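Data card: per-record layout.
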Amino acid sequence: MTTVTPTTATQAAPLEHWFPTTGQGPGTSFETSLRSRTLEQTEALARACLPRCGITRVADVTDLDILGIPVFHTMRPGAAPGLNTVTSGKGVTAATSRVSALMEAIERTWCEPPRDRVPLRASYAQLRARDVPVLDPRRLVLRRGHSWTPEEPISWWPAREVVSGLEVLVPALAVFTPFPGECGMLRSNTIGLASGNNPQEALLHGLLEAVEQDCTAFGETLRRGYRIRPRSLPSGPAELLERFQQAGVEVQVFGYVNDIGVPALFATTDDTNAEDGMLINGGAGCSPDPVVSLTRALTEAAQSRLAVINGAREDLNAQAYRRHASYEEMREMYRRWSLDRVETDFADEFRNESTGSTAGDLDLVLSRLEKAGLTVVLAVELAPEDLPFSVTKVIVPGLEVHHHDPRRLGLRLHRELVRTGRAKPLS
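The structure for this 427-residue chain is written out next.
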Protein backbone atom coordinates (compact mmCIF):
# COMPACT_ATOMS: atom_id res chain seq x y z
CA MET A 1 0.00 0.00 0.00
CA THR A 2 1.27 3.47 -0.88
CA THR A 3 2.56 5.45 2.09
CA VAL A 4 1.08 8.92 2.29
CA THR A 5 2.32 11.70 4.51
CA PRO A 6 0.18 14.74 5.31
CA THR A 7 2.68 17.18 3.84
CA THR A 8 4.55 17.49 0.60
CA ALA A 9 8.03 18.71 -0.25
CA THR A 10 6.62 22.15 -0.91
CA GLN A 11 4.13 24.25 1.01
CA ALA A 12 1.43 26.62 -0.20
CA ALA A 13 2.14 30.31 0.26
CA PRO A 14 0.83 31.59 3.61
CA LEU A 15 -2.38 33.60 3.74
CA GLU A 16 -0.39 36.80 4.36
CA HIS A 17 1.10 36.35 0.90
CA TRP A 18 -2.20 37.55 -0.61
CA PHE A 19 -3.45 39.57 2.35
CA PRO A 20 -0.45 41.42 3.81
CA THR A 21 -0.90 43.10 7.18
CA THR A 22 0.93 46.21 5.94
CA GLY A 23 -0.43 48.37 3.16
CA GLN A 24 1.17 48.22 -0.27
CA GLY A 25 -0.03 51.58 -1.50
CA PRO A 26 -2.98 52.42 -3.73
CA GLY A 27 -3.35 50.85 -7.13
CA THR A 28 -2.77 52.92 -10.23
CA SER A 29 -5.25 52.57 -13.08
CA PHE A 30 -3.81 51.53 -16.46
CA GLU A 31 -6.78 51.33 -18.85
CA THR A 32 -7.80 47.78 -17.99
CA SER A 33 -6.46 47.07 -14.49
CA LEU A 34 -5.23 48.38 -11.16
CA ARG A 35 -1.46 48.20 -10.74
CA SER A 36 0.82 48.96 -7.79
CA ARG A 37 3.80 49.90 -9.98
CA THR A 38 4.02 52.38 -12.79
CA LEU A 39 3.95 51.03 -16.31
CA GLU A 40 7.61 51.96 -16.75
CA GLN A 41 8.63 50.13 -13.58
CA THR A 42 6.70 47.03 -14.57
CA GLU A 43 8.25 46.97 -18.03
CA ALA A 44 11.79 47.40 -16.73
CA LEU A 45 11.39 44.51 -14.29
CA ALA A 46 9.68 42.34 -16.90
CA ARG A 47 12.44 42.90 -19.46
CA ALA A 48 15.01 41.86 -16.87
CA CYS A 49 13.12 38.53 -16.58
CA LEU A 50 13.14 37.75 -20.32
CA PRO A 51 16.26 35.52 -20.43
CA ARG A 52 15.16 33.60 -17.34
CA CYS A 53 11.75 32.95 -18.88
CA GLY A 54 13.18 31.97 -22.26
CA ILE A 55 11.48 34.89 -24.02
CA THR A 56 13.55 35.62 -27.10
CA ARG A 57 11.60 38.36 -28.84
CA VAL A 58 9.01 41.08 -28.27
CA ALA A 59 7.42 42.23 -31.53
CA ASP A 60 5.09 45.10 -32.40
CA VAL A 61 2.63 43.61 -34.92
CA THR A 62 0.14 46.50 -34.87
CA ASP A 63 0.85 47.63 -38.43
CA LEU A 64 -0.01 44.23 -39.89
CA ASP A 65 -3.65 45.24 -39.46
CA ILE A 66 -5.51 48.37 -40.55
CA LEU A 67 -7.12 49.06 -37.18
CA GLY A 68 -4.12 50.70 -35.52
CA ILE A 69 -5.04 49.27 -32.10
CA PRO A 70 -1.70 48.27 -30.50
CA VAL A 71 -0.90 44.55 -30.29
CA PHE A 72 2.45 43.01 -29.31
CA HIS A 73 3.64 39.41 -29.53
CA THR A 74 6.22 37.63 -27.41
CA MET A 75 8.09 34.52 -28.51
CA ARG A 76 9.06 31.73 -26.09
CA PRO A 77 10.41 28.87 -28.23
CA GLY A 78 10.95 26.57 -25.24
CA ALA A 79 7.29 26.51 -24.20
CA ALA A 80 6.14 23.08 -23.11
CA PRO A 81 4.29 21.06 -25.76
CA GLY A 82 0.66 22.06 -25.53
CA LEU A 83 1.36 25.71 -24.79
CA ASN A 84 1.69 28.35 -27.50
CA THR A 85 5.19 29.62 -28.16
CA VAL A 86 3.67 32.98 -29.16
CA THR A 87 1.64 34.98 -26.64
CA SER A 88 0.04 38.35 -27.15
CA GLY A 89 -0.71 41.57 -25.33
CA LYS A 90 -3.23 44.31 -26.02
CA GLY A 91 -3.94 47.84 -24.91
CA VAL A 92 -5.05 51.28 -25.99
CA THR A 93 -1.41 52.47 -26.15
CA ALA A 94 1.73 50.75 -27.37
CA ALA A 95 3.24 50.82 -23.87
CA THR A 96 0.30 49.06 -22.21
CA SER A 97 0.10 46.51 -25.01
CA ARG A 98 3.82 45.77 -24.77
CA VAL A 99 3.68 45.29 -20.99
CA SER A 100 0.57 43.14 -21.39
CA ALA A 101 2.46 40.85 -23.77
CA LEU A 102 5.43 40.62 -21.41
CA MET A 103 3.28 39.73 -18.41
CA GLU A 104 1.34 37.17 -20.42
CA ALA A 105 4.56 35.43 -21.41
CA ILE A 106 5.84 35.47 -17.82
CA GLU A 107 2.69 33.88 -16.44
CA ARG A 108 2.74 31.19 -19.12
CA THR A 109 6.35 30.39 -18.18
CA TRP A 110 5.48 29.58 -14.59
CA CYS A 111 2.19 27.77 -15.17
CA GLU A 112 4.12 24.76 -16.44
CA PRO A 113 4.74 21.88 -14.00
CA PRO A 114 7.96 22.55 -12.06
CA ARG A 115 10.95 20.44 -12.97
CA ASP A 116 12.47 20.46 -9.50
CA ARG A 117 9.41 19.42 -7.47
CA VAL A 118 7.26 16.35 -7.84
CA PRO A 119 3.57 16.36 -6.92
CA LEU A 120 2.39 14.07 -4.15
CA ARG A 121 0.90 10.87 -5.56
CA ALA A 122 -1.97 9.35 -3.58
CA SER A 123 -5.65 8.55 -3.69
CA TYR A 124 -8.33 10.81 -2.26
CA ALA A 125 -9.40 7.98 0.04
CA GLN A 126 -5.87 7.61 1.45
CA LEU A 127 -5.57 11.32 2.16
CA ARG A 128 -8.98 11.43 3.81
CA ALA A 129 -8.12 8.42 5.97
CA ARG A 130 -5.10 10.34 7.29
CA ASP A 131 -7.12 13.52 7.90
CA VAL A 132 -5.10 15.48 5.34
CA PRO A 133 -7.05 18.59 4.24
CA VAL A 134 -7.86 17.77 0.63
CA LEU A 135 -10.34 19.00 -1.96
CA ASP A 136 -12.82 16.46 -3.24
CA PRO A 137 -12.11 16.45 -7.02
CA ARG A 138 -15.83 16.15 -7.71
CA ARG A 139 -16.21 19.78 -6.63
CA LEU A 140 -14.23 20.83 -9.72
CA VAL A 141 -17.06 19.89 -12.14
CA LEU A 142 -15.52 16.77 -13.62
CA ARG A 143 -16.09 15.70 -17.20
CA ARG A 144 -18.97 13.39 -17.94
CA GLY A 145 -17.67 9.85 -18.45
CA HIS A 146 -14.49 10.21 -16.35
CA SER A 147 -13.06 7.09 -14.70
CA TRP A 148 -11.81 8.65 -11.47
CA THR A 149 -12.74 7.04 -8.15
CA PRO A 150 -11.71 8.00 -4.61
CA GLU A 151 -9.40 4.98 -4.56
CA GLU A 152 -7.52 6.01 -7.75
CA PRO A 153 -4.07 7.58 -7.11
CA ILE A 154 -3.62 10.98 -8.76
CA SER A 155 -1.19 13.90 -8.40
CA TRP A 156 -1.80 16.56 -5.72
CA TRP A 157 -0.44 20.04 -5.04
CA PRO A 158 -0.88 22.36 -2.02
CA ALA A 159 -3.11 25.42 -2.34
CA ARG A 160 -4.18 28.05 0.16
CA GLU A 161 -7.86 28.61 0.93
CA VAL A 162 -7.97 32.40 0.99
CA VAL A 163 -10.88 32.80 3.41
CA SER A 164 -9.84 30.37 6.15
CA GLY A 165 -6.10 30.31 5.44
CA LEU A 166 -6.09 26.50 5.46
CA GLU A 167 -3.60 24.66 3.27
CA VAL A 168 -5.50 22.18 1.11
CA LEU A 169 -4.28 19.61 -1.38
CA VAL A 170 -5.88 19.96 -4.82
CA PRO A 171 -5.48 17.91 -7.99
CA ALA A 172 -2.28 19.08 -9.71
CA LEU A 173 -4.22 18.82 -12.96
CA ALA A 174 -6.21 21.89 -11.83
CA VAL A 175 -3.03 23.87 -11.09
CA PHE A 176 -0.55 23.35 -13.91
CA THR A 177 -0.77 23.65 -17.68
CA PRO A 178 -0.01 21.54 -19.61
CA PHE A 179 -0.53 18.56 -17.31
CA PRO A 180 -1.16 14.94 -18.32
CA GLY A 181 -4.78 13.93 -18.17
CA GLU A 182 -5.75 11.81 -15.20
CA CYS A 183 -8.77 9.51 -15.39
CA GLY A 184 -10.43 11.87 -17.87
CA MET A 185 -11.35 14.21 -14.98
CA LEU A 186 -10.76 17.46 -16.86
CA ARG A 187 -8.35 19.12 -19.26
CA SER A 188 -5.63 21.31 -17.83
CA ASN A 189 -6.21 24.96 -18.72
CA THR A 190 -5.19 28.51 -17.88
CA ILE A 191 -8.56 29.66 -16.52
CA GLY A 192 -7.81 31.55 -13.31
CA LEU A 193 -4.14 32.06 -14.16
CA ALA A 194 -2.85 35.61 -13.75
CA SER A 195 0.28 37.61 -13.05
CA GLY A 196 0.67 40.80 -11.06
CA ASN A 197 3.15 43.21 -9.56
CA ASN A 198 2.20 41.73 -6.20
CA PRO A 199 0.17 38.73 -5.03
CA GLN A 200 -3.01 40.76 -4.47
CA GLU A 201 -2.99 41.94 -8.07
CA ALA A 202 -2.49 38.44 -9.39
CA LEU A 203 -5.19 37.00 -7.14
CA LEU A 204 -7.71 39.66 -8.19
CA HIS A 205 -7.00 39.27 -11.89
CA GLY A 206 -7.15 35.47 -11.64
CA LEU A 207 -10.51 35.65 -9.87
CA LEU A 208 -11.94 38.02 -12.47
CA GLU A 209 -10.77 35.78 -15.29
CA ALA A 210 -12.48 32.78 -13.64
CA VAL A 211 -15.67 34.78 -13.05
CA GLU A 212 -15.62 35.88 -16.71
CA GLN A 213 -15.66 32.25 -17.81
CA ASP A 214 -18.51 31.45 -15.41
CA CYS A 215 -20.59 34.35 -16.74
CA THR A 216 -19.93 33.19 -20.27
CA ALA A 217 -20.97 29.61 -19.47
CA PHE A 218 -24.32 30.83 -18.11
CA GLY A 219 -24.87 33.41 -20.84
CA GLU A 220 -24.12 31.15 -23.79
CA THR A 221 -25.75 27.99 -22.44
CA LEU A 222 -28.94 29.74 -21.36
CA ARG A 223 -28.96 32.21 -24.28
CA ARG A 224 -29.02 35.15 -21.90
CA GLY A 225 -27.37 38.52 -21.85
CA TYR A 226 -27.74 42.00 -23.24
CA ARG A 227 -26.92 43.43 -26.63
CA ILE A 228 -25.58 46.89 -25.89
CA ARG A 229 -26.51 49.73 -28.23
CA PRO A 230 -23.28 51.13 -29.73
CA ARG A 231 -24.48 54.72 -29.48
CA SER A 232 -24.71 54.34 -25.70
CA LEU A 233 -21.04 53.46 -25.14
CA PRO A 234 -18.87 55.81 -23.04
CA SER A 235 -16.19 57.84 -24.80
CA GLY A 236 -13.15 55.56 -24.48
CA PRO A 237 -14.76 52.36 -25.79
CA ALA A 238 -16.71 54.43 -28.34
CA GLU A 239 -13.43 55.67 -29.84
CA LEU A 240 -12.14 52.10 -30.11
CA LEU A 241 -15.42 51.03 -31.72
CA GLU A 242 -15.04 53.81 -34.28
CA ARG A 243 -11.65 52.42 -35.35
CA PHE A 244 -13.25 49.10 -36.21
CA GLN A 245 -16.16 50.65 -38.04
CA GLN A 246 -13.95 52.94 -40.14
CA ALA A 247 -12.09 49.82 -41.32
CA GLY A 248 -15.31 48.08 -42.36
CA VAL A 249 -15.32 45.78 -39.34
CA GLU A 250 -18.75 45.37 -37.78
CA VAL A 251 -18.78 45.24 -33.97
CA GLN A 252 -21.43 44.01 -31.60
CA VAL A 253 -21.17 44.43 -27.82
CA PHE A 254 -22.77 42.10 -25.30
CA GLY A 255 -22.95 41.80 -21.53
CA TYR A 256 -23.54 38.74 -19.35
CA VAL A 257 -24.53 38.88 -15.69
CA ASN A 258 -25.20 35.90 -13.45
CA ASP A 259 -25.67 35.21 -9.73
CA ILE A 260 -22.15 36.40 -8.88
CA GLY A 261 -23.04 39.92 -9.94
CA VAL A 262 -19.74 40.93 -11.57
CA PRO A 263 -20.62 41.24 -15.28
CA ALA A 264 -18.54 40.09 -18.22
CA LEU A 265 -18.57 42.18 -21.40
CA PHE A 266 -17.90 40.90 -24.91
CA ALA A 267 -17.10 42.37 -28.29
CA THR A 268 -17.55 40.38 -31.48
CA THR A 269 -16.18 41.58 -34.81
CA ASP A 270 -16.86 40.72 -38.44
CA ASP A 271 -14.62 42.01 -41.24
CA THR A 272 -17.19 42.67 -43.96
CA ASN A 273 -14.51 43.74 -46.45
CA ALA A 274 -12.32 40.65 -46.13
CA GLU A 275 -15.31 38.27 -46.03
CA ASP A 276 -13.18 35.68 -44.24
CA GLY A 277 -14.69 33.47 -41.57
CA MET A 278 -11.36 33.44 -39.73
CA LEU A 279 -11.76 37.19 -39.26
CA ILE A 280 -14.93 36.84 -37.25
CA ASN A 281 -13.30 37.37 -33.87
CA GLY A 282 -14.07 38.38 -30.34
CA GLY A 283 -12.76 39.51 -26.99
CA ALA A 284 -13.95 39.61 -23.40
CA GLY A 285 -13.30 41.38 -20.14
CA CYS A 286 -14.51 41.24 -16.55
CA SER A 287 -14.08 43.91 -13.89
CA PRO A 288 -16.17 45.74 -11.28
CA ASP A 289 -15.66 48.72 -13.62
CA PRO A 290 -17.62 48.00 -16.83
CA VAL A 291 -15.61 50.55 -18.83
CA VAL A 292 -12.47 48.58 -17.98
CA SER A 293 -14.24 45.36 -19.00
CA LEU A 294 -15.35 46.76 -22.34
CA THR A 295 -11.97 48.32 -23.11
CA ARG A 296 -10.37 44.95 -22.48
CA ALA A 297 -12.96 43.20 -24.66
CA LEU A 298 -12.44 45.53 -27.62
CA THR A 299 -8.63 45.45 -27.44
CA GLU A 300 -8.72 41.67 -27.06
CA ALA A 301 -10.88 41.42 -30.18
CA ALA A 302 -8.18 43.38 -32.04
CA GLN A 303 -5.55 41.05 -30.57
CA SER A 304 -7.48 37.95 -31.65
CA ARG A 305 -7.82 39.35 -35.16
CA LEU A 306 -4.11 40.12 -35.43
CA ALA A 307 -3.16 36.66 -34.21
CA VAL A 308 -4.97 35.28 -37.26
CA ILE A 309 -3.52 37.85 -39.66
CA ASN A 310 0.00 37.25 -38.36
CA GLY A 311 -0.37 33.47 -38.43
CA ALA A 312 0.50 33.35 -34.74
CA ARG A 313 -2.37 31.11 -33.66
CA GLU A 314 -0.94 27.68 -32.85
CA ASP A 315 -4.22 26.28 -31.53
CA LEU A 316 -6.27 26.54 -34.70
CA ASN A 317 -6.62 22.78 -35.03
CA ALA A 318 -9.27 23.08 -32.35
CA GLN A 319 -11.12 25.46 -34.69
CA ALA A 320 -10.73 23.56 -37.93
CA TYR A 321 -14.40 24.08 -38.70
CA ARG A 322 -13.70 27.80 -39.14
CA ARG A 323 -11.01 27.18 -41.74
CA HIS A 324 -13.21 24.87 -43.76
CA ALA A 325 -16.50 26.75 -43.46
CA SER A 326 -17.48 29.43 -45.95
CA TYR A 327 -17.80 33.05 -44.89
CA GLU A 328 -21.57 32.82 -45.35
CA GLU A 329 -21.73 29.79 -43.06
CA MET A 330 -19.69 31.55 -40.39
CA ARG A 331 -21.83 34.70 -40.65
CA GLU A 332 -24.97 32.62 -40.21
CA MET A 333 -23.46 30.91 -37.16
CA TYR A 334 -22.51 34.33 -35.82
CA ARG A 335 -26.03 35.65 -36.49
CA ARG A 336 -27.69 32.74 -34.67
CA TRP A 337 -25.31 33.14 -31.73
CA SER A 338 -26.28 36.80 -31.30
CA LEU A 339 -30.05 36.30 -31.56
CA ASP A 340 -32.49 36.71 -28.68
CA ARG A 341 -30.42 39.20 -26.70
CA VAL A 342 -32.31 42.03 -25.00
CA GLU A 343 -31.11 45.42 -26.26
CA THR A 344 -30.08 47.95 -23.66
CA ASP A 345 -28.05 51.10 -23.16
CA PHE A 346 -24.66 50.66 -21.51
CA ALA A 347 -25.39 52.85 -18.48
CA ASP A 348 -28.79 51.25 -17.83
CA GLU A 349 -27.38 47.85 -16.86
CA PHE A 350 -23.67 48.33 -16.14
CA ARG A 351 -22.46 50.59 -13.34
CA ASN A 352 -19.00 51.14 -11.96
CA GLU A 353 -18.66 49.32 -8.63
CA SER A 354 -14.87 49.38 -8.45
CA THR A 355 -13.45 50.67 -5.19
CA GLY A 356 -10.41 52.10 -6.98
CA SER A 357 -8.02 49.82 -5.10
CA THR A 358 -6.81 46.27 -5.57
CA ALA A 359 -7.62 45.30 -1.99
CA GLY A 360 -11.08 46.84 -2.18
CA ASP A 361 -11.95 45.17 -5.47
CA LEU A 362 -10.63 41.86 -4.16
CA ASP A 363 -12.92 42.11 -1.13
CA LEU A 364 -15.81 42.96 -3.45
CA VAL A 365 -15.30 39.93 -5.71
CA LEU A 366 -14.81 37.55 -2.78
CA SER A 367 -18.04 38.79 -1.15
CA ARG A 368 -19.96 38.34 -4.42
CA LEU A 369 -18.66 34.78 -4.74
CA GLU A 370 -19.72 34.03 -1.18
CA LYS A 371 -23.24 35.37 -1.78
CA ALA A 372 -23.49 33.08 -4.81
CA GLY A 373 -22.66 30.10 -2.58
CA LEU A 374 -19.09 29.81 -3.85
CA THR A 375 -17.46 29.88 -0.44
CA VAL A 376 -14.19 28.10 -1.24
CA VAL A 377 -11.51 30.08 -3.07
CA LEU A 378 -8.11 28.44 -3.50
CA ALA A 379 -4.89 30.04 -4.71
CA VAL A 380 -1.47 28.71 -5.62
CA GLU A 381 1.61 30.89 -6.03
CA LEU A 382 3.55 29.59 -9.03
CA ALA A 383 6.38 32.12 -9.34
CA PRO A 384 9.68 31.56 -7.53
CA GLU A 385 10.35 33.75 -4.49
CA ASP A 386 13.00 35.84 -6.23
CA LEU A 387 10.80 36.76 -9.21
CA PRO A 388 9.64 40.41 -8.96
CA PHE A 389 6.12 39.34 -9.91
CA SER A 390 3.43 37.05 -8.60
CA VAL A 391 1.95 34.34 -10.82
CA THR A 392 -1.18 32.91 -9.24
CA LYS A 393 -3.53 30.10 -10.21
CA VAL A 394 -6.99 30.60 -8.74
CA ILE A 395 -9.36 27.66 -8.29
CA VAL A 396 -12.99 28.26 -7.30
CA PRO A 397 -14.85 24.96 -7.00
CA GLY A 398 -18.29 25.25 -8.58
CA LEU A 399 -17.51 27.78 -11.29
CA GLU A 400 -18.79 26.72 -14.70
CA VAL A 401 -16.88 26.20 -17.97
CA HIS A 402 -19.59 24.46 -20.00
CA HIS A 403 -19.00 26.71 -23.04
CA HIS A 404 -15.39 25.47 -23.22
CA ASP A 405 -16.13 21.84 -22.47
CA PRO A 406 -19.72 20.64 -22.99
CA ARG A 407 -18.88 17.52 -20.98
CA ARG A 408 -18.41 19.62 -17.84
CA LEU A 409 -21.75 20.74 -16.39
CA GLY A 410 -21.90 21.79 -12.76
CA LEU A 411 -24.77 21.88 -10.30
CA ARG A 412 -25.33 25.65 -10.49
CA LEU A 413 -25.78 25.70 -14.24
CA HIS A 414 -27.73 22.44 -14.25
CA ARG A 415 -30.17 23.83 -11.67
CA GLU A 416 -30.80 26.84 -13.88
CA LEU A 417 -31.28 24.61 -16.93
CA VAL A 418 -33.86 22.62 -14.96
CA ARG A 419 -35.58 25.79 -13.75
CA THR A 420 -35.97 27.03 -17.33
CA GLY A 421 -37.16 23.66 -18.61
CA ARG A 422 -34.01 22.92 -20.64
CA ALA A 423 -32.89 19.91 -18.60
CA LYS A 424 -34.37 17.24 -16.37
CA PRO A 425 -33.71 17.10 -12.62
CA LEU A 426 -31.02 14.73 -11.47
CA SER A 427 -32.47 11.40 -10.38
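Known properties of this structure: Residues 1-7 have pLDDT under 50 and may be disordered. The longest helix spans residues 199-222.

See the next section for split statistics.
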